[in-house]
Amino acid sequence: MTALQQPARAEGPLRPPVRVPFPVVDEVARHCLQEEEPETVHIEVHLPGPLDPDRLRTAFAEALRRHPRILMREAPGRWYRRRYEWELTAEPDVEVVSFPAPGRDALRDARTRALTQAPPLSLSPPIRLEVVEGAGPVEGSEATDAVGAPSAAAGSRAAGAAPDPHRAAPRRRGRATQPASGNHGHGKGTVLFLTINHTALDGPACLRVLATAAELYGGRDNSPAASPIRTTETPPPSEETPSNWSHPARVAPGTPEPSPGNGMLVTELPLPHRPKGSPYTVNDQLMVTTALTIAHWNREHGARPRPLRITMPVDDRPRDTTMPIGNGTRLVEVPFCPDELKRADDDMPGLLHRTALRTRALKSLPRPQLGHGASLLTAPWAPVAVRAALTRGLRRAAAPWTSTTLLSNIGRIPYPLDFGEEAGRAHAVWFSAPARMPRGLTVTTASTAGRLHLALRWSRALLSHGDGAHLRDLFEHYLHTTEVAP
Fold this sequence. Notes:
Number of domains: 1
Number of helices: 10
Distance between the termini: 39 Å
CATH topology: Chloramphenicol Acetyltransferase
Structural class: alpha+beta
Largest sheet: 7 strands, mixed
Radius of gyration: 22 Å
Number of strands: 15
CATH superfamily: Chloramphenicol acetyltransferase-like domain
Strand content: 15-25%
Shape: globular
């Protein structure tokens, strides 16, 4: 979403707030809201030292004013209105920054809130920042899901899963994972939890605002690093590329949990090695890893082999202070054939190269954020209530064609996120994206301080925390297999 960067006008009796129509992405998300599975994006930033509450509140409030497009709320309206509208405000309606009471479960509880409690659209801005103080170090503890249930040990398998005759068991490689509780008594670190209502905003936009707040708080330069230059190569026609009209594979059900909503697991892994001059990127390695992980999982659970399609967000926005704030990514789908995944052991360089060609070609194609159909669907030809019902119906009807999963690779965090001498620079940053059915699973990765930070998020209607732990182990195993010689 790139429009409407003008600052909010002063509110008063003679000048009402500026109103702007919902862009396509926002409107489709608004039509499909569900209370049981809130559409939230969670960003988790780990700092080595403490933050001063008053200074942070002041810095974050000023950062909001410097990016005025984030100061918005949904304007009230009657059911027969033709558009949803954002109402831009001069100041926040609520205090955005909070400091929950520290304690053993503070970190776990903040994660739970990030997945279960979306900031309301009716209050400006639709985000919140929670500061968990006294968090222990990242390394050396077992991971948990969002509700704090300990993850299964490495190599655990879902009940009833058949062993895979074609693959070796995943191996541990000294993984360091996120601690289960917020205070282990040996550290004074701080964790920032930024929770975003995804109907209004996305993760990269809010990370830009947080980088501005870090610069204002610490007085240090938080300008983004230069983006790497990629060459564009058009892939040759391939008989192995599946048709977009075929029904893609679904993630096979594991052990669903009775409670609704999402579960989540975060972990830290080594960045995969990539030989110098490789024709593929780390993003391509992550794409192949995700495909092989799901293919393995589905074989274990007796699912018939089908083509996989993995949705990949593409973000072309600048990362400096001119970055448009909102939902600014467009979605493309990367296909994989069952046969090429089955042959990956013998042809990993070929699979990585083909994946690189596909992702580059998809990134270079001009395309609306959600395709041409969404633009037609959100045209104001009928009241929003009528179009909302139609959108939800079409979404259910199109479920068999929905991609298998979503891989959102933020890449190397472009900002230092340096909060000054006492608080320090971020040494771990996790993101997670919503995981509603029919996908039911999202994979989000980011790189900070030379480490890969992975978040698996799933619908409890599909998987349990034990299933998530097994998927994490599979992901780690297959990430290692992409580290091939040139």
